Amino acid sequence: MSQNVDKRLNAHNTGKTKSTKGFRPWEIILTEEYPDRITARKREKYLKTGYGKQWLKNKYKQVP
């Protein structure tokens, strides 16, 4: 969740975010906009659950 997606992605890919440092490089597969922080946070939390991750995998299957 960020107001500046490019800056956030750069922080992840340069190792400035400790929790994601070991899984680099990161790439953006989805961006969504919400009217307020609370709604955005609820969506982010859902996408990080097992169901949310499965939804992302099904929606964005990589075609060889």
Automatic annotation (TrEMBL):
InterPro entries with a match to the protein in the record: GIY-YIG_endonuc, GIY-YIG_endonuc_sf
Domain of life: Bacteria
Residue span(s) of domain GIY-YIG: 1-59
Pfam families attached to this UniProt entry: GIY-YIG
Protein name: GIY-YIG nuclease family protein
Organism field: Aquimarina celericrescens
